[in-house]
Write a structure and sequence with these properties.
five-stranded parallel beta sheet, FAD/NAD(P)-binding domain, alpha/beta, binds flavin-adenine dinucleotide, 2 domains, 314 residues
Length: 314
């Protein structure tokens, strides 16, 4: 059976993929977006977004992403709920294999598959997932009303999680392995002046303990080597991101952590495969960056597609 050949397949419908879809439709490319869950991406895990330029406060990420999705749909976005499993190179064509039996043949691909939260690797972490250990304060904070909780991490997401948790919890211990935080200064200032937040620097989580639920954490002080117990009923882990690149491992060049390496035009080492947003090896993982890269990836992909089709702008 012969398959239809798309101009472009976009994998992932977060901010990067949805923006790519908007630009692809405006370029009149025959494109399809593959999304394993629902459109919107990781930002849906957050309560509010206050650094997307031109969007007046307060806006929930859900509303912002619904607007992006609608904008893409109004332009005729084709969206399919499938998970990309593997990309096969077939001469000038690429075949995307999915978890279902569906396959997509295309001239070019944009990888916009984003990331997932990294695991901490502490003893007890896996045992207590859903029983006190969480990777999403927005989802789980209300379960910890008037209780003591811990956030592990020192970046923007860890601080945002902390500032969301103080609305519910009695106290939030913020544990970071370094002597200073990495997050935006504006977020640090808010955490420093909140009386419910206690910051514990230069410490790491060794063990998360409890019976059927989390009851506390054993922390190791990296300067003294001493272990201390901190009783708490929730542990929110925010220690980095793991890129969703298993389906392209071995095909596209990745860095040591698995992020996609690209040139400045967002092309990977495989001509015709481009990457944008959080999945890419870049400095800042934010919605505004993901959107910008989504637009740029389409501009580069369009150039490539035109070349393959022999279309030349005079
Ligand atoms: C708690 C939290 C708070 C945040 N707060 C902010 C903030 O205030 N401001 C800000 O700018 N940024 C914030 N961010 C970061 C922001 O969410 C990301 O930078 C942004 O979502 C990246 O967009 P993306 O499209 O590159 O990837 P993602 O949003 O991760 O989207 C990737 C999509 O690809 C899909 N996918 C993955 N693999 C496959 C596959 N194999 N097949 C099909 N689909 C697949 C996923 O389901 C997902 O929908 C926050 C993140 C978190 C977690």
């Amino acid at each position: 059976m012969t398959h239809k050949t798309y101009d472009l397949v976009i994998i992932g419908a977060g901010p990067a993929g949805l923006t790519a879809s908007i630009y692809a439709r405006r370029a009149r490319l025959d494109a399809v977006v593959l999304e394993r869950l629902v459109p919107g991406g990781q930002i849906l895990l957050s309560q509010r977004i206050e650094n997307y330029p031109g969007v007046p406060l307060p806006i929930s990420p859900k509303r912002l992403m619904e607007k992006m999705q609608r904008q893409a749909e109004n332009l005729g976005m084709k969206l399919e709920q499938v998970e990309a499993k593997r990309i096969e190179l077939d001469g000038e064509k690429k075949i995307i294999h999915t978890l279902s039996d569906k396959k997509y043949t295309t001239l070019a691909v944009i990888i916009a598959s984003g990331t997932e939260p990294s695991k901490l690797g502490a003893e007890g972490e896996t045992t207590f997932v859903g029983r006190g250990v969480s990777y999403c304060a927005t989802c789980d904070a209300p379960f910890f009303k008037d209780q003591e909780v811990m956030v592990v991490g020192g970046g923007n997401t860890a601080l945002q999680e902390t500032l969301h948790l103080v609305r519910f919890a009695r106290k939030v211990h913020l544990v970071h392995r370094r002597g200073m935080l990495r997050a935006e200064k504006i977020l640090q200032e808010r955490a420093f002046r909140n009386p419910k937040v206690e910051i514990i620097f230069r410490s790491v989580v060794k063990v998360i303990y409890g019976d059927s639920q989390v009851e506390g954490v054993k922390l190791k002080d990296l300067e003294t080597g001493k272990i201390k117990k901190v009783p708490c009923s929730g542990v929110f882990i925010s220690v980095g991101l793991k890129p969703n690149t298993d389906f392209i491992r071995g095909l596209v060049e990745l860095d040591k952590k698995g992020f996609v390496k690209t040139r400045a035009n967002l092309e990977t080492n495989v001509p015709s495969i481009f990457a944008c947003g959080d999945v890419r090896k870049n400095l800042l993982k934010q919605v505004v960056v993901a959107c910008g890269e989504g637009a740029l990836a389409v501009a580069s992909a369009e150039k490539y597609i035109n070349k393959v089709k022999g279309i030349e702008y005079k």
